């Protein structure tokens, strides 16, 4: 019984978490950075490649839900799953990798904001510069949803393992001691 109580005390939130050893942390960050670069290349190839054959079919969508409705109204469910699922899957790596590569972006709101800004920029570039592509707000929403899923499933845990924080009291004490209260 005393052993169980002891384990509970050491497992409480707010207790100091030990970070991974420095070489492992550096390797994890290097791998995350390499995957982020690979993800950026794949994202650019998928979204910024001209599609002249689709030029007549493209249209700008500034109304959330309009494209989603069009996807779901398609006769083939497979096409809707491909469009919606593809956009969600495209955001997942962002939610996993961003908090590892840039620890200051850790947290649901920061990851969502960072993803939304990046995906908005991608969509603006698509609409303004790429033949056969258009800006679609629903793509931004789906990509950001994917990033949220990636963050909740894996990104948060990976980021905490690589960039562990000390207890809250020690951070506040460090800020006061350095004069940044």
Describe this structure in words.
By secondary structure, this protein is mainly α. 70% of the residues lie in helices and 0% in strands. The protein has helices at residues 2-10, 22-47, 66-72, 77-101, 108-129, 137-162, 168-178. The longest helix is centred in the first third of the chain and has 26 residues, at 22-47. The relative contact order is 0.17. Residues 37-154 form the VanZ-like domain. The chain crosses the membrane at residues 22-44, 84-102, 109-128, 140-158. InterPro entries: Teicoplanin_resist-assoc, VanZ-like.
Short description:
The protein is mainly alpha-helical. It has helices spanning 2-10, 22-47, 66-72, 77-101, 108-129, 137-162, 168-178. It has a domain at 77-164.
SSE ordering = HHHHHHH
Number of strands: 0
Q: Work out the radius of gyration.
A: 21 Å
Give the percentage of residues in beta strands.
under 5%
Fraction of residues in H or I helices:
55-70%
List the helices and strands and how they pair.
Blueprint (H helix, E strand, L loop, with lengths): L1 H9 L11 H26 L18 H7 L4 H25 L6 H22 L7 H26 L5 H11 L3
Helix pairs in contact: 2-4, 3-4, 4-6, 5-6
